[in-house]
Design a protein that fits this description.
Blueprint (H helix, E strand, L loop, with lengths): L2 H16 L1 H23 L2 E5 L9 E7 L5 E7 L7 E7 L6
Antiparallel strand pairs: 1-2, 2-3, 3-4
Helix pairs in contact: 1-2
């Protein structure tokens, strides 16, 4: 790993240790940016993301609306150097946030 990348990660980790609520907002913000990009490419309308990584896989659960009205469940990366979303399921029974 490059020294500047290591320094950035350590600085970010220190920031998160000091203000956990601020860190959670950054994580959700990153996931929602990834959701926006994915939704735009797929023709979906972004709905939003949760703020808890319940299975610690580096993704937050997010939802988008398909043009046919169904809600699309996505997992979107939230860590600062990760990007992208992956579609999990399409169901009209999932509640929008």
């Amino acid at each position: 790993m490059k020294p500047l990348t290591t320094l950035a990660i350590l600085s970010f980790a220190g920031f998160c240790a000091i203000g956990l609520s601020s860190c959670a907002k950054i994580f959700v913000g990153n996931a929602e940016k990834n959701l926006q990009k994915y939704a735009q490419r797929a023709g979906y309308t972004p709905i939003g993301c949760t703020n808890i990584d319940s299975d610690q896989d580096g993704y937050l659960s997010c939802d988008a609306k398909h043009p046919d009205g169904q809600t699309v469940a996505l997992d979107c990366a939230y860590k600062p150097f990760d990007s992208g979303c992956k579609e999990i399921e399409r169901t009209k029974f999932r509640r929008a946030r």
